[in-house]
Amino acid sequence: MKRIVVLGMPNTGKSTLFNRLTGAGAHVGNWPGVTVDLLAAKILLGDAMVEVIDLPGFYNLHGFSEDEAVVRHFLETQPVNLLLIVLNSSQLDRQLALPLQLRELGIPMCLLLNMSDEANKLGIRIDVPKLEAALQAPAIPLAAKYGTGIEKVRSELIRLLYEHPKLTQANDAAFNQDMQIELELDDLAHRVVTNPITLPVSATDRLDRVLLHPWLGLPIFFLMMFLLFQAIYGLGIPLQDGMGWLFDHLKSRWLEPAVAAWPGPLKSLVLEGLFDGLGTVLTFLPIIAMFFLLIAIVEDSGYLSRAAFLTDALMSRLGLDGRAFVMQLLGFGCNVPAIMGTRIMRSPALRTLTMLIIPFSLCSARLQVILFVVAATFPARAAPIALFSLYLASFVMAFLTAFIWRKRYRNHEPLLLELPSYRLPTWRFLGFEAWRATRQFIAGAGGFIILGVLMVWFLTHFPFNVAVAGPQTMAGWIARGLGPIFEPLGIDNMLSTALLFGFIAKEIVIGALAVIFSVGPNDLSGVLAQRLNWVQAYSFLLFTLIYTPCLSTIAVIKQESKSRKTAAIAVLWPLSLAWLTSFAFYQVARHLL
Amino acid sequence: MSIPLNQLAPDASGTIESIQAGQELRRRLAGLGLRSGIRVQVIRQSPLNGPMQIRVGHTDLIMRAADAAHIEVCPGP
Ligand SMILES: Nc1nc2c(ncn2[C@@H]2O[C@H](COP(=O)(O)OP(=O)(O)O)[C@@H](O)[C@H]2O)c(=O)[nH]1
Predict the structure, then answer these.
(1) What is the pTM of this model?
(2) What is the ipTM of this complex?
(3) CA-proximal residue: ligand 1, atom 14 (nearest)
(4) How far apart are CA B34 and CA B42, in angstroms?
(5) Looking at the predicted structure, is the pLDDT value of residue A199 above 60?
(6) What is the C-alpha to C-alpha distance for residues A434 and A440, in angstroms, rounded to an integer?
(7) CATH classification of A2-194, choosing from 3.50.50.60, 2.60.120.200, 3.40.50.300, 3.20.20.80?
(8) What kind of fold does domain B3-75 have according to CATH?
(9) What pLDDT was estimated at residue A402?
(10) Ligand 1 pocket: which residues have CB below 6 Å?
(11) Residues B24, A93: C-beta atoms closer than 8 Å
């Protein structure tokens, strides 16, 4: 099959073009030796099916960053018909370096002068015929965001594929020799680009003066984050609840009667194992979609790099950058999409470190447990203080984790981010990211989550002839075995069995406690108040906050990092930290009081 | 007389004299248009010793002071 690759520096509009060309049919392709996800799509050009592949944005064919290595590796190993090079028209003075380097590969090229709308606004003029002659390649002005020029691109691609029907392997020598192109670049840019004498003070500058103001900048940032948070979860959580309700309904109305006659264990496997596992996966979908929809707007607007500018002073000391902080804050709604959101970071080390701190964000599921237990065991006056201290603990644990692991996941890439001019999102493509992320969540994490739910189901139900989650089940055995470990934390066997359930999803801890104590949810408060003093309760809450993130979070960490080791660290590290914290708290508090 | 870029005050500009960095950083910088002979302008500095915003041609960039210290500029209009 014929093959076209889309190349360009970051932020030149590659994805926008790719989406325009390929519609929603893109999938994540797998290529030998390539560890990052590449989007690929098959489209009909003229009368031929053509595979279009979107390579990561990169600055230099001979550079050392991860993305640059991916591009190089791809071009070294995969023959292609055509390089489709996307350039930002208002930055040709430096972006033309890319076609000058790529020319050496000896593969036919086509240049797309994207963002021509912005160049026009800035008064930048480009001599297209001269450029074509100099680089021996067709060049097409384009505004991918608005679709201007797309038809021209399509017909030019058809013509070029007709002209170059054979796959071409890149000329190997070109990867090794790093030619001095700077003189040629300056000369070329000088000849084909005419800059206006003075730039008008753009709207971006005026906005930046407020949004990046030394004193106002951070308060505005937190306000923006608050609004974003409200928007994502204000809309997402009700949708999630609705989905959960729908599932319960389906279960009680339809599934339960259908399997009523089945033998007990099999019925339970279907109802509490398979169906609940499936339900767990599906209830995440609305929130992931919502998250990616709104994050795409913020990212497109250009504000995300500004957030990095504002918060980097703190985050750089922790080995992170400002974007990590944004994701950490959004993790307070739900960790799962926040971890998927780390995709906006390119450095793998930085991403991994961020994925390790996000699970400490006190998500809304844990909040349900905490609110319930606090209300049951703390006097009304002390309750807000307890709650606040747990939020504080959440930040302390995250920053402590970053601080401790920052050496191991040292990010070698300097913080060099472009501050793009502010842009309005293109509504037409907004849904794409959301749709893609949800699909990937189902494909990448769904199976793992269902398996985990089945495992916990087995532990808490086997052997089948005793009370669910009771002392005679496997879970009961495990809890007894772990007794000596939990005892110094003031957490008894029944509570630790509930924590085992919490591994599936934190919000079911309360439901699990009700099952374990065999009381209705309404009487649970009373039982807890009787059995736990506030020191034990707080120790339990600290442990609940910090310990192993829920199954879905682990599943997406594994999916996003593509590393079992990272997933293992994400399980074991919080577990150890939780134990140490609860231990320290319980022992000190017990002896003081 | 040249000074490191991170010592250039907001609103001041200068011309890059040399970049005293390893090959890797130099290439990253060149990819963003930062090379000898190029004029840069400091737009602002983020509070608490955070990164600085600089303008090269039509591109605005943010970089940390530690990285900017590798870039020697000759202050000028
Ligand atoms: N004004 C303008 N903006 C564009 C154009 N093409 C893309 N963009 C915007 O540029 C930003 C970066 O685009 P994206 O496709 O994500 O770039 P990529 O990083 O190269 O994949 C987005 O906010 C787009 O909406 C265009 O032709 N004109």
Answers:
(1) 0.81
(2) 0.94
(3) A13
(4) 13
(5) no
(6) 10
(7) 3.40.50.300
(8) SH3 type barrels. (2.30.30)
(9) 95
(10) A 8, 10-16, 57, 114-115, 117-118, 143-145, 300, 423, 426
(11) no
